Amino acid sequence: MKTTIKRKQPTLRLKTASAQEVMDFGDAFSDDLEAPAPCDGTTELVLAGRQTVGLVSYLVRNYELIITQLYVAPEFRSFGLGQQILEILSQPEDVLITRVIATPSSAGYYEKLGFSPDMGHVILAKVK
Q1: Average pLDDT, the chain
Q2: Are 53 and 72 in contact (CB under 8 A)?
Q3: 112 with 89: CB under 8 angstroms?
Q4: Which uninterrupted H or E stretch holds 25?
């Protein structure tokens, strides 16, 4: 007989991150954390109690939430935290559409949550 262990989903809160906190968090997960997309909006640490479990960067404009990075630390994955973060961010009534700038490795995750590729937009980059 197989028993399943139910993992409790922690309650999350978001805290605006200083540049130093973002750098410290990124340094701790440099092997796993992909380079963030540029964001003129807000970057927040994701906290469960006092523990920093992730990082999210986003901006809101014209009824649209644009998430440029959503990262959950490896030891906190499989708890549904990514989905909970998306729900927290999209709660305001003035958010009618949520867009995620996904990496190739994360696109499948977002598709499982109901996101679909936005064929009208192509993101290009040029480095000097």
Answers
A1: 81
A2: yes
A3: no
A4: helix 19-28
Q: Considering only residues 108 and 9, tell me which one the structure prediction assigns the higher pLDDT.
A: 108
Listing DSSP states for 59-123 in one string gives EEETTEEEEEEEEE-GGGTTSSHHHHHHHHHT-STT--EEEE---TTTHHHHHHTT----TT---
Contact (CB, 8 A) for 79 and 10: yes
Which tokens belong to 90? 């999209």
> In whole angstroms, how far apart are CA 4 and each of 1, 9, 46?
10, 15, 27
Which residues pair with residue 52 across a beta bridge? 47
Summarised one tens digit per residue, pLDDT across range 73-89 is 998 988 899 999 998 88
| pLDDT at residue 31, rounded to an integer | 67
Specify the pTM: 0.77
Helix, strand, or coil (residue 26): helix
Within 8 A by CB and 6+ apart from 58, the residues are 39, 41, 42, 65, 66, 67, 68, 89
How far is CA 43 from each of CA 5, 6, 39, 116, rounded to the nearest angstrom?
33, 31, 8, 24
